[in-house]
């Protein structure tokens, strides 16, 4: 089968779209014929080695498609031909063997693209706005990189919960997009000091600050967090966060460095959360800023675009 295999870590140049062996399913797994591999920033960390993995491996942690085979003696309600989405390694490929605890059946109303988007970016936006701290009417929430995959869904979820949303973006085009998604205030963080701009809007800071940008923003994100507020540092798009003196948090700020893995530990938790995101799509509470699907064979250019901040919303790659 065709797949993107990482044999050594590095820049986009290590991405190899190549022939490799089709996976064999074992008990407890199903074989998915992928329609789309979802693109996520974490793919760049696996590719570069920031998050180490045993080499060689097939890149990608989320996909959607149909069930082609079910491992012998596997206990599951899933059937051959079912439309599914999953959160599991090896999705940049024609086929992926997935444990049944990491896969969910798609309701008829949910498209393959929505299914893939729900897995990482959707469930992440959900746990950030509902479980790290449940936003409520009257709260303010700062969301960095609001035009991105997680950001664009988090804006809509935070608005739905009644929060006032401030978001940062790097371009005018992205500013227009986040306004359409419902953001109340947009800060162009390449042009102005975002902490000063935010504190001018709300001097006491925000109940919840969502920072997936990392190194470039973390220090100022602390300033934007209200006394006794929550700061989730959940990513490293600009590089990993540098150590800080603990005293900088001595306004009783609760800092967390969460990972989706820990918010979908059991099959039940995974399925419940995925279904909550599907429901938000079905009720039109969230919508996707979908771009035309890219081709998996074009993976190098797709990673270049993601890392040079050219993408917005959800990007999926068609298996071609
Ligand atoms: P995005 O689509 O949001 O892409 C990243 C965005 O980050 C860019 O579009 C850009 O937006 C912004 N950015 C700021 N500085 C830089 C920089 N130096 N280089 C590149 N981009 C930069 O990606 P995802 O939605 O896939 O992920 C967003 C973040 O969330 C990532 O850090 C990711 O690792 C993290 N994440 C964490 C999870 C968890 O559970 N911990 C789960 C899922 C994602 P702009 O141009 O507007 O600045």
Automatic annotation (TrEMBL):
<feature type="domain" description="Enoyl reductase (ER)">
    <location>
        <begin position="10"/>
        <end position="317"/>
    </location>
</feature>
<dbReference type="InterPro" id="IPR013149">
    <property type="entry name" value="ADH-like_C"/>
</dbReference>
<dbReference type="GO" id="GO:0003960">
    <property type="term" value="F:quinone reductase (NADPH) activity"/>
</dbReference>
<dbReference type="Pfam" id="PF08240">
    <property type="entry name" value="ADH_N"/>
</dbReference>
<dbReference type="InterPro" id="IPR020843">
    <property type="entry name" value="ER"/>
</dbReference>
<dbReference type="InterPro" id="IPR013154">
    <property type="entry name" value="ADH-like_N"/>
</dbReference>
<keyword id="KW-0560">Oxidoreductase</keyword>
<dbReference type="GO" id="GO:0070402">
    <property type="term" value="F:NADPH binding"/>
</dbReference>
<protein>
    <recommendedName>
        <fullName>Probable quinone oxidoreductase</fullName>
    </recommendedName>
</protein>
<keyword id="KW-0521">NADP</keyword>
<dbReference type="GO" id="GO:0035925">
    <property type="term" value="F:mRNA 3'-UTR AU-rich region binding"/>
</dbReference>
<dbReference type="GO" id="GO:0005829">
    <property type="term" value="C:cytosol"/>
</dbReference>
<dbReference type="Pfam" id="PF00107">
    <property type="entry name" value="ADH_zinc_N"/>
</dbReference>
<dbReference type="InterPro" id="IPR011032">
    <property type="entry name" value="GroES-like_sf"/>
</dbReference>
<dbReference type="InterPro" id="IPR002364">
    <property type="entry name" value="Quin_OxRdtase/zeta-crystal_CS"/>
</dbReference>
<dbReference type="GO" id="GO:0008270">
    <property type="term" value="F:zinc ion binding"/>
</dbReference>
<dbReference type="InterPro" id="IPR036291">
    <property type="entry name" value="NAD(P)-bd_dom_sf"/>
</dbReference>
<dbReference type="InterPro" id="IPR047618">
    <property type="entry name" value="QOR-like"/>
</dbReference>
């Amino acid at each position: 089968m065709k797949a993107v295999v990482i044999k050594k870590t590095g820049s986009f140049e290590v991405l190899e779209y190549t022939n490799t062996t089709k996976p064999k399913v074992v008990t407890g797994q199903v074989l998915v014929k992928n329609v789309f591999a979802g693109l996520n920033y974490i793919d760049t960390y696996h590719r570069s080695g920031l998050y180490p993995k045993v080499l060689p491996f097939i890149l990608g942690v989320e996909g959607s498609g149909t069930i082609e085979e079910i491992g012998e003696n596997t206990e599951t309600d899933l059937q051959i031909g079912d439309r599914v989405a999953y959160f599991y390694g090896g999705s940049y490929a024609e086929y992926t063997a997935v444990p049944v605890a990491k896969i969910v059946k798609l309701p008829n109303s949910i498209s393959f693209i929505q299914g893939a988007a729900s897995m990482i970016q959707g469930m992440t936006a959900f746990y950030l706005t509902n479980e790290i701290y449940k936003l409520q009417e009257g709260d303010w929430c700062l969301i960095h990189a609001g035009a991105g995959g997680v950001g664009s869904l988090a804006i809509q979820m935070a608005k739905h919960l009644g929060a006032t949303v401030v978001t940062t973006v790097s371009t005018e085009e992205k500013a227009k997009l986040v306004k359409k998604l419902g953001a109340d205030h947009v800060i162009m963080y390449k042009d102005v000091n975002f902490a000063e701009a935010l504190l001018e809007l709300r001097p006491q800071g925000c109940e919840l600050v969502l920072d997936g940008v990392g190194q470039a923003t973390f220090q100022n994100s602390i300033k934007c967090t209200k006394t006794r507020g929550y700061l989730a540092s959940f990513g490293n798009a600009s590089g990993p966060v540098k150590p800080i003196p603990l005293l900088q948090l001595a306004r009783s700020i609760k800092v967390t460095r969460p990972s989706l893995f820990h918010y979908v530990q059991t099959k039940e938790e995974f399925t419940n959360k995925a279904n909550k995101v599907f429901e938000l799509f079905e009720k039109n509470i969230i919508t996707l800023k979908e771009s035309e699907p890219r081709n998996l064979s074009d993976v190098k250019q797709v990673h270049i675009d993601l890392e040079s901040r050219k993408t917005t919303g959800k990007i999926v790659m068609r298996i071609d």
